[in-house]
Automatic annotation (TrEMBL):
<dbReference type="InterPro" id="IPR013785">
    <property type="entry name" value="Aldolase_TIM"/>
</dbReference>
<dbReference type="InterPro" id="IPR020625">
    <property type="entry name" value="Schiff_base-form_aldolases_AS"/>
</dbReference>
<keyword id="KW-0028">Amino-acid biosynthesis</keyword>
<keyword id="KW-0963">Cytoplasm</keyword>
<feature type="site" description="Part of a proton relay during catalysis">
    <location>
        <position position="44"/>
    </location>
</feature>
<keyword id="KW-0456">Lyase</keyword>
<feature type="active site" description="Proton donor/acceptor">
    <location>
        <position position="133"/>
    </location>
</feature>
<dbReference type="Pfam" id="PF00701">
    <property type="entry name" value="DHDPS"/>
</dbReference>
<feature type="binding site">
    <location>
        <position position="45"/>
    </location>
    <ligand>
        <name>pyruvate</name>
    </ligand>
</feature>
<feature type="active site" description="Schiff-base intermediate with substrate">
    <location>
        <position position="161"/>
    </location>
</feature>
<keyword id="KW-0457">Lysine biosynthesis</keyword>
<dbReference type="InterPro" id="IPR005263">
    <property type="entry name" value="DapA"/>
</dbReference>
<comment type="pathway">
    <text>Amino-acid biosynthesis; L-lysine biosynthesis via DAP pathway; (S)-tetrahydrodipicolinate from L-aspartate: step 3/4.</text>
</comment>
<comment type="function">
    <text>Catalyzes the condensation of (S)-aspartate-beta-semialdehyde [(S)-ASA] and pyruvate to 4-hydroxy-tetrahydrodipicolinate (HTPA).</text>
</comment>
<feature type="site" description="Part of a proton relay during catalysis">
    <location>
        <position position="107"/>
    </location>
</feature>
<dbReference type="InterPro" id="IPR002220">
    <property type="entry name" value="DapA-like"/>
</dbReference>
<comment type="subunit">
    <text>Homotetramer; dimer of dimers.</text>
</comment>
C-alpha cells in the first residue's frame, strides 16, 4: 500500500502562531514535485498536541485539497484519549485519507494490555486502515512486537512506524506481524539500515527539507541499489542528526524557512523558535547536505 519516503509533514504557522495555509500549499506541491511517496499530515511532527480538533481536521482537509489526488495522504489520528482517537479516525475516514497514523497514548503510559484495548476500541469503531506509531522516547510507552503482532490480526491495522531506536525490532516485528505488515522507520539516521533489514521505508522528518534526496535514497534502497542509497545517506547524515538539536519540530521548521519552503519558522507554544546555536549547527548541516540554494 505504501513504501519509500513518506514525509512527517510540519504544520507551517504565521508569525502570530496560526496555521499558514499558503505555506501549507507550497509544501504539498513541493512534495508532489519531489517524488515523496505519501504525506503524513497532523502527526506529532505536525504539532498535533497543540492544535484544536477543528484546526487538526482543517489541516488534513487542506492537505487533501492541495494534493488533489496527486499523492496519498495519511492523517494523524492518535491521541492519549481513546474516544478522541476514535473521533479523529472516523473524521479521517469520512474525509478520504488513505490511512491513519495513530501514536501510542502519551503520558498515560498504558500497559501492553491497555494498548491492545486502546487500538482494538479504535478499529472496532472505524475500519480506516491504521499505521501504529511507536515512539517511546516521546510517549513514555513502548509498543512491544508481541503486542503489535496481536494488533496485526485486526483487519484495519496495516503497519507500524517504529521510532524505538532499535534495529533489532525489524526482525522481531516481521516475526510477530508477518511479511505483509508494513514496517516504517521513524528514525531518519537508522532508516537505511531499517530497510536493509526488511523494512518498507521511512516516515521522515528529514524529508521536509530534503524531499527529493530522501525519495531517491529509498527508491534505490528498495531495489537493492545499496551503493547509491549509501552515497545519498552519507551526505544527509549531518542533517538527520542536527534536525534533532532541539525538540522536534523546532529545528525542521527553522530549516524549512531557511530554504524558503515556508514563510516563518514559528512553532506553537509551549515550543519556541530555534536558538542561535541550533541555527549555526543546522546551517552547516544544510551546506553539507548540499541543500542550500535548492529550496
Amino acid at each position: 500500500m505504501f513504501s519509500g519516503s513518506i514525509v512527517a509533514l510540519i504544520t507551517p504557522m504565521t508569525a502570530a502562531g496560526e496555521v499558514d495555509n499558503d505555506s501549507l500549499k507550497r509544501l504539498v506541491d513541493y512534495h508532489v514535485a519531489s517524488g515523496t511517496a505519501a504525506i503524513a499530515a497532523m502527526g506529532t511532527t505536525g504539532e498535533s498536541p497543540t492544535l484544536s480538533t477543528d484546526e487538526h481536521l482543517e489541516v488534513v482537509r487542506r492537505v487533501l485539497e492541495f494534493a488533489n489526488g496527486r499523492i496519498p495522504v495519511i492523517g494523524g489520528c492518535g491521541s492519549n484519549n481513546t474516544r478522541q482517537a476514535i473521533r479523529l479516525s472516523q473524521a479521517m475516514k469520512a474525509m478520504g485519507v488513505a490511512a491513519g497514523l495513530s501514536v501510542t497514548p502519551y503520558y498515560n503510559k498504558p500497559s501492553q494490555a491497555g494498548l491492545l484495548a486502546h487500538y482494538s476500541a479504535i478499529t472496532d469503531a472505524c475500519d480506516l486502515p491504521q499505521l501504529l506509531y511507536n515512539v517511546p522516547g516521546r510517549t513514555g510507552c513502548d509498543l512491544l512486537p508481541e503486542t503489535a503482532g496481536r494488533l496485526a490480526e485486526l483487519g484495519p491495522v496495516i503497519g507500524i512506524k517504529d521510532a524505538s531506536g532499535r534495529l533489532d525490532r525489524v526482525s522481531e516485528l516481521k516475526h510477530c506481524c508477518g511479511d505483509d505488515f508494513l514496517l516504517f522507520s521513524g528514525d531518519d539516521h537508522l532508516a537505511l539500515d531499517f530497510v536493509r533489514l526488511g523494512g518498507h521505508g521511512v516516515i521522515s522528518v528529514t524529508a521536509n527539507v530534503a524531499a527529493a534526496d530522501m525519495a531517491a535514497l529509498f527508491r534505490a534502497a528498495l531495489v537493492g541499489d545499496w551503493a547509491q542509497a549509501e552515497v545519498i545517506n552519507q551526505r544527509l547524515l549531518p542533517l538527520h542528526q542536527h534536525l534533532f538539536c532541539d525538540t522536534n519540530p523546532i529545528p525542521v521548521k527553522w530549516a524549512c524557512a531557511e530554504l524558503g519552503l515556508i514563510d516563518t519558522s514559528m512553532p506553537r507554544l509551549p515550543l519556541i523558535p530555534l536558538n542561535t546555536s541550533g541555527k549555526e549547527q543546522l546551517r552547516e548541516a544544510l551546506l553539507k547536505a548540499e541543500l542550500t540554494g535548492r529550496g
